[in-house]
C-alpha cells in the first residue's frame, strides 16, 4: 500500500461525500471554476479564448480555437445549466453556434481541428475532436439546445462512416481535410474519449448502438491490451492494433510510454459502462479497481505527491511533471469506486487526492487549477501554458456530489427528479 494506511478508524470512516461541509466545499470549488472561466473565456468573434494563469485571454488579437476546447466548454457549461448556474445557457449557445457554423466542414463533412478569425488553421479531421463534438451535442441535448439533435445526428454519421472500424471495434485516428489518409497510427486516447461520448449519447437518446460501440472499445483497449499488460494502459498502436512501445509523438496528446492519468480515467469510465450495461459485464469492475490501484502504485510520487505524467515500460518516470488532470480524474474514479466497493483504499485515496489538490493544485490566489507542477510541486509551464480548460477540474468537483449511476450530466438530471418526487 502506497503511502497511506489501509483502513480508516471507525471514528472517521463515514465517506466525505456524505458530509455536508465536504459537499459545500465541492460546490464552492465548482462555482469558483465557473467564476474563473465564464466571462474571460467568451470570445466575441466566436468560440472561446484559452486563458493564462491570471484568467486573461492568452492571445486576444487572433486567437486559435481548437475543436476539443470549444466542445469541452459547451459540455462544461451544459453541466452549469443543469445544476442551475446562471449565465451558463449563453455560453452553451455561443459554443454550439461556433461548432456548427465554423468547426463543421460544410464541404467535406466532419469537424476541423483548428480555426482563427480568418478561417481554418488546421483542417485535419481528428477522432479525438469528433469524440468531443459528440459529447458536447449529447450534453447540449439534455439542456434542450435547438442545434443538439442535428449536431448529434451529424457527428454520429461522420464517426460511423469515416472513423469507425467495425472489424476491430474502435476508431481510426485522423484524416486530411478531404478524408484522405495521412497516417496509419491508431491511438488509445481518442478511443477513450469516444467511450465517454458514446455513453453520454446513449444516455441522451436511449439508442443501444452507442452503448454497444462503447463496450467494444473498452473490450479492445482494456480487456485485450491493458489487463494483460498488468493493468497498464497502452497508448500507441499500428493499423492492426499491434502495440508500438517505441512510439514518439506529441508530448501533449500522444506522449510516449504509459500515462497513469489515462488508467485513472478508464477506471471511472469502466464503472459507468458497467452500470449503463445493466452490470452484466463483470470484468469491468475488476479491471477498474486494478487500473486505479496500478496507477497509484506506479504513478504516484511517494516523495513529493502528485502523479508523474508518463512512465516507461519498466515503470520508471519519463516526464516527471505533475499535471492537474490526472489528479482530477483520480478523484472522479475514487468517488465512483467508493460508491460500489467497501474497501477503505478508495476512500483513503479520495481524501488524499483532495488534500493534494487543495494544497498544491488549486490556485487560491488567482482562481482555477494550476495546469502543471514540477516534480517537487512548483508551478511550471513546460507542456501547458496558462489554465487550459475547466472540464477535468469541474468534473472532479461535481462527480462526487451525484449518484454514481452513469455520466455526470445524466446523474444530475436523475438527482433532480428524485428531489422532485420527494416534494
From TrEMBL:
Pfam families: GlcNAc_2-epim (PF07221). One of its GO terms (biological process) is carbohydrate metabolic process. GO terms for molecular function: isomerase activity. Keywords: Isomerase. SUPFAM superfamilies: Six-hairpin glycosidases. Belongs to the N-acylglucosamine 2-epimerase family. This is AGE family epimerase/isomerase. It comes from Devosia litorisediminis.
Amino acid at each position: 500500500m502506497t503511502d497511506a494506511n489501509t483502513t480508516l478508524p471507525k471514528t472517521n470512516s463515514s465517506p466525505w461525500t456524505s458530509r455536508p461541509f465536504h459537499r459545500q466545499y465541492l460546490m464552492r470549488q465548482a462555482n469558483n471554476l465557473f467564476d474563473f472561466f465564464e466571462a474571460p473565456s467568451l470570445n466575441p468573434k466566436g468560440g472561446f479564448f484559452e486563458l493564462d494563469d491570471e484568467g486573461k485571454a492568452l492571445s486576444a488579437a487572433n486567437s486559435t480555437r481548437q475543436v476539443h476546447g470549444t466542445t469541452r466548454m459547451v459540455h462544461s457549461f451544459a453541466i452549469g445549466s443543469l445544476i442551475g448556474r446562471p449565465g451558463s445557457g449563453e455560453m452553451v449557445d455561443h459554443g454550439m453556434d461556433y461548432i456548427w457554423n465554423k468547426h463543421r466542414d460544410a464541404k467535406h463533412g466532419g469537424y476541423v481541428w483548428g480555426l482563427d478569425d480568418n478561417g481554418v488553421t488546421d483542417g485535419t479531421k481528428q477522432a479525438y475532436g469528433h469524440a468531443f463534438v459528440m459529447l458536447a451535442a449529447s450534453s447540449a441535448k439534455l439542456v434542450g439546445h435547438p442545434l443538439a439533435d442535428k449536431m448529434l445526428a451529424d457527428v454520429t454519421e461522420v464517426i460511423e462512416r469515416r472513423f469507425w472500424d467495425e472489424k476491430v471495434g474502435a476508431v481510426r485516428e485522423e484524416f486530411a481535410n478531404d478524408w484522405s489518409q495521412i497516417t496509419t497510427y491508431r491511438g488509445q486516447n481518442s478511443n477513450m474519449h469516444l467511450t465517454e461520448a458514446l455513453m453520454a449519447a446513449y444516455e441522451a437518446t436511449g439508442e443501444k448502438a452507442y452503448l454497444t460501440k462503447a463496450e467494444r472499445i473498452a473490450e479492445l483497449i482494456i480487456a485485450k491490451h491493458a489487463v494483460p499488460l498488468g493493468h497498464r494502459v497502452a497508448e500507441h498502436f499500428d493499423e492492426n492494433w499491434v502495440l508500438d512501445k517505441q512510439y514518439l509523438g506529441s508530448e501533449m496528446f500522444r506522449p510516449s510510454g504509459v500515462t497513469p492519468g489515462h488508467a485513472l480515467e478508464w477506471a471511472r469510465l469502466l464503472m459507468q459502462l458497467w452500470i449503463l450495461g445493466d452490470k452484466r459485464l463483470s470484468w469491468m469492475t475488476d479491471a477498474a479497481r486494478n487500473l486505479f490501484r496500478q496507477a497509484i502504485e506506479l504513478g504516484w510520487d511517494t516523495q513529493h505527491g502528485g502523479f508523474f505524467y508518463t512512465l516507461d515500460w519498466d515503470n520508471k518516470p519519463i516526464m516527471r511533471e505533475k499535471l492537474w488532470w490526472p489528479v482530477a480524474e483520480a478523484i472522479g474514479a475514487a468517488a465512483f469506486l467508493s460508491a460500489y466497493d467497501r474497501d477503505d483504499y478508495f476512500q483513503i485515496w479520495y481524501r488524499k487526492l483532495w488534500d493534494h489538490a487543495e494544497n498544491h493544485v488549486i490556485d487560491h490566489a488567482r482562481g482555477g487549477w494550476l495546469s502543471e507542477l514540477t516534480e517537487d510541486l512548483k508551478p511550471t509551464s513546460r507542456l501547458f501554458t496558462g489554465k487550459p480548460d475547466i472540464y477535468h477540474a469541474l468534473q472532479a468537483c461535481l462527480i462526487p456530489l451525484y449518484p454514481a449511476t452513469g455520466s455526470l450530466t445524466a446523474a444530475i438530471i436523475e438527482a433532480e427528479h428524485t428531489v422532485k418526487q420527494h416534494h
